[in-house]
Design brief:
The protein is α/β, with parallel strands linked by helices. 44% of the residues lie in helices and 14% in strands.
């Protein structure tokens, strides 16, 4: 598998990964999250864990179990950490702790014996409380924009996080005050996954035919979960404004569902209501394994939209850029890392601003090509999974070193990530 990545990123990158993995040979590394299918975390772990294994690390991936009340609580927690004033009742918060305790009963022996445990997002964050005899390092990996959390919920969650050895955030602006080391590591995409590999025109045409999309007319697309932070209603409003000047315009709003997101169906219903009566709007609820369909839709689109109002990172932005498309994205979170205004796309704040940028690009197709080429190279240099793997390995090696390292400068202070 590593040889295939060498063809995309270069052999020197693979050599560096193998060198970094040498001191970690045979070590047990466990990733824990709350869903195996759906969402960016699951997509990253699907490939990151096998790559670690190929580098000689005993890596594995555990998924905690929960019920409807638990996921309702963690969805509210997710929204609160991203700034919404969402109060969660004591009974649900107690249920959150109980579900973590139940999962710890199943996973305790494995987690306590591991050299490194990566806990992804708030759902399994309380597991550490129930693993008092841990042998290795525990790291909390925060994938969301926690820069301005709703205080009551942060005060509830923080005591569970204080005992971790380190936290990892996608942007420096997201980092919270915690009594341990903090690292900045942006997420990434897998260029060899079904969602991102090159596909031929016939396959793209087949997908467009399936959804009655006319490839002779302009297509814009937002591929995202149906989540209010992704602002799908704002996308429809922007499309409606742009269509007054570009009558041939078509819009695709496509997303999947995830087992840990109970709000998705409600938001999907709101989106259908907002788009009612417009035959040029395609609202697609895709199954979790529709990776090649998403690949084709992104390649068929002239412009990718990701008009989020809050965004931990936005892997769909990276995916669109990797396919050589300019992205018009919300001026929020990790989208700012990827969309460089006037170079790889545009940052926007309103439906009006989005419509204006749509009209600008669709009237100047040479700009679409120019920005798309820049976008693809920007992803190649910064947001492929080999870069994220390198930074995880570097972090683990840094934590492996005793305080002070072997030189005059403390080893951990010499590690620069991100």
């Amino acid at each position: 598998m590593l040889e295939k990545y060498a063809q995309v990123v270069g052999q020197d990158v693979i050599d560096q990964l193998q060198q970094l993995a040498e001191p970690l040979q045979g070590m047990k590394v466990i990733h824990v999250n709350s869903t195996r299918i759906g969402g960016g975390v699951a997509e990253i772990l699907t490939k990151l864990v096998p790559l670690m294994q190929e580098l000689g690390i005993d890596a594995s991936w555990e998924v905690i179990a929960g019920d409807d009340d638990f996921f309702q609580c963690t969805k509210s927690m997710h929204n609160a950490l991203q700034g919404n004033r969402v109060d969660i009742g004591d009974s649900l918060l107690q249920h959150y702790e109980q579900i973590n305790a139940n999962n710890a009963e199943q996973l305790r022996d494995t987690l306590e014996a591991a050299s490194y445990v990566f806990i992804h997002d708030p759902q399994p964050a309380a597991l550490l409380k129930y693993c008092p005899n841990r042998q290795g390092k525990w790291l909390w990996r925060c994938h969301i924009d926690a820069s301005h959390p709703y205080r009551p919920i942060w005060r509830f969650l923080q005591p569970f996080l204080n005992s971790y050895e380190a936290s990892i955030f996608s942007l420096a602006a997201f980092a919270r005050s915690l009594p341990h080391l903090k690292y900045i590591i942006p997420p990434s995409i897998d260029p060899l996954s079904e969602k991102n590999i090159d596909i031929d025109r016939a396959e793209i045409d087949e997908v467009c035919d399936r959804f009655s999309l006319d490839r002779e007319r302009p297509i814009i697309a937002q591929i995202s979960r149906f989540d209010r932070f992704k602002d799908p209603i704002g996308v429809i409003q922007a499309y409606q404004q742009a269509k007054k000047y570009i009558p041939q315009l078509q819009l695709v709003l496509a997303g999947g569902s995830a087992t840990d997101d109970p709000e998705g169906q409600m938001v999907l219903n709101e989106v259908k209501t907002a788009a009612a009566g417009d035959a040029d709007v395609r609202i697609l609820l895709l199954p979790p394994d529709a990776h090649r369909t998403i690949n084709a839709l992104q390649r068929a689109a002239d412009i990718i939209l990701q008009k989020s109002t809050k965004e931990g990172f936005g892997l769909t932005v990276t995916e669109g850029m990797w396919k050589g498309k300019p992205v018009i994205g919300g001026d929020a979170g990790g989208i700012r890392l990827q969309v460089k205004n006037y170079h790889t796309g545009f940052l926007v704040n309103t439906p009006e601003g989005t419509a204006l940028r749509l009209r600008y690009l669709l009237k100047q197709p040479e700009k679409i090509t120019e920005m798309g080429e820049k976008a693809k190279e920007f992803v190649r240099e910064n947001f492929l999974i080999t870069r994220q793997l390198r930074e995880y390995l570097t972090l683990m090696v840094a934590l492996l070193e005793p305080e002070g390292g072997s030189g005059e400068t403390p080893f951990r202070e010499r590690i620069e990530l991100g």
